[in-house]
Amino acid sequence: MKSRFLFIGLLLTMVVVHSCKLTRFVVYNYANITDYKIFPSREINTSSTPFVFAQSENPRTPKKVELEGKDYPFDQYLIDNHTVAFLVIQNDSIQYENYFNDYSQASIVASFSMAKSITSLLIGIAIDEGLIKSVDEPITNYIPELLPNGFAAVKIRHLLQMTSGLDFNEGYQNPFGHVATFYYGNNLRKAINKLKLAEQPGERFRYTSGQTQLLGLVLERALKNKTVSTYLEEKVWQPLGMEYKASWSIDRKKDGLEKTFCCVNARARDFAKIGRLYLNKGKSGDRQIVSEKWVRESTKIDTSDGSAWFYQYQWWLPTKEGDFMAKGILGQFIYVNPSKNLIMVRLGEKTGNVDWNKFLPEIAQGY
User: Fold this and answer.
1) Which H or E run includes 169?
2) Rounded Cα gap, residues 29 and 25, in angstroms
3) Closest Cα partner for 315 from 331, 337, 299?
4) Strand ranges across the sheet with 109-110
5) Residue 137 CB contacts under 8 Å (≥ 6 apart), including other chains
6) Residue 331 exposed, middle or buried by CB count within 10 Å (0-12, 13-18, 19+)
7) Contact assessment for residue 297 and residue 303, using Cβ atoms and an 8 Å cutoff
8) Whole-angstrom Cα distance, residue 169 to residue 176?
9) Which is higher by pLDDT, 13 or 58?
């Protein structure tokens, strides 16, 4: 009888805590590119007139990879390093496209931190439309509840450049850290209200996901009665002619907030169109989706006010040669090389034994 009561008690406890952050962390940790299945989300509808990349008539396909004096077939190298999708587009034509481990052109992959670059894009559009005045606005104009926490001097620019001085634990293996709360928790607004600063804004670069989530709340407040997902659909997904629907994971079903630091769920070709937009200086066809000025500011080298040369407005700069990229954990990449008129997308279950920050620019030089 005693064991029966213990079993019932344990069962009730499991039911009660099933949706809590710690349980999610224990059950689902570590992050996986299929995590879009475990969170509530908002759907982002596709265009009725999709843009489809042409297939190159004379594709220039990478044949091999040289490593420690040995040559490896390119496809096998990708497979061995846990790649599920690899796409090379030059001059709007597909030079290489391949999928592995039962993934296909239609397979959904979680973006992880590539969503940071998409969030930046939406901030730029909101500024273009006058919904946000400028990057020099204090974020407390939109999140006044952070004033008592010492955020009066934090500007939108600081969040974009990761120089806000935010006290935020980025460790993905700590169930009690900030990232676990933001990723697995179900009340982002409450978590945001508890944030503090570790140092004065504008002093140094420190990459943390909390800064992008603050941008997401700024954006939501600027949009007023429109969700961040709806804004992405109206201003980006449909105008760019995305081929597939997407979704953006939110923290909770009712009145949820988009996880703007991580979780856009889409396909390789549509991720490539985000790169294409920036390659074309903010234009899609004859339509200016985001200002050329925003694209330039987002991807230029700048070390003023504590900014790092290799990171601007939520985009990474892998070299000083004008290329830039969005990237997420486990090796998700949208890489853009304007001098080569080239875009690459790499999606993977793990990074493998590859430094993709160096590998992608090296592949680009072969075109």
Assistant:
1) none
2) 5
3) 299
4) 41-44, 246-249, 264-266, 109-110
5) 155, 156
6) buried
7) no
8) 9
9) 58
Residue 226 pLDDT greater than 70, yes or no: yes
Other Cβ atoms less than 10 A from the Cβ of 288: the count is 13
Phi and psi, residue 290, nearest 5°: -140, 150
Alpha helix segments (H runs only) across 187-267: 188-193, 209-223, 228-232
Token digits of residue 248 = 């953006």
Cα–Cα distance, 133 to 91 (Å, whole number)? 35
Q: Is residue 297 a contact partner of residue 317, using CB atoms and an 8 Å limit?
A: no
CA distance 204 to 211: 14
Judged against a pLDDT cut of 50, whether residue 48 lies above it is answered with yes
Q: What's the longest Cα–Cα distance across the chain?
A: 75
With left for phi above 0 and alpha for psi between -120 and 50, is residue 236 left, alpha or beta? alpha
Tracing tokens 């670059």 back to the chain, one arrives at: 117
What pTM, to 2 d.p., does this model score? 0.91
Confidence of residue 66 (pLDDT cuts 50, 70, 90): confident
230 contacts 238 by C-beta, under 8 angstroms:
no
What is the Cα–Cα distance from 14 to 36, expressed in whole angstroms?
23
Q: What is the pLDDT of residue 12?
A: 36
Residue 92 CB coordination number (10 Å): 14
Which pLDDT band holds residue 176 (cuts at 50, 70, 90)? low
Say which amino acid occupies 188.
L
d(CA 95, CA 103): 19
Other C-beta atoms closer than 10 Å to the C-beta of 291 total: 16
266 contact partners, CB below 8 Å, separation of at least 6: 108, 109, 111, 242, 244, 246, 247
Residue in this structure with the two tokens 């160096």, named with its chain if needed: 358
List the single range of 18-27, 46-55, 71-80, 238-247 with lowest mean pLDDT. Answer: 18-27
Tell the residue number behind the tokens 């809590």, with chain if given. 20
With 0-12 / 13-18 / 19 or more C-beta atoms within 10 angstroms meaning exposed / middle / buried, residue 302 is middle
Rg (alpha carbons) of the chain, rounded to whole number: 21
Which of these, 265, 257, 271, lies nearest to 35 by C-alpha position? 265
The more confident residue out of 175 and 226 is 226
Catalogue all structural domains in the chain, each as residue range(s) with its CATH number. 31-364 (3.40.710.10)
Q: How far apart are CA 104 and CA 273, in angstroms?
A: 17
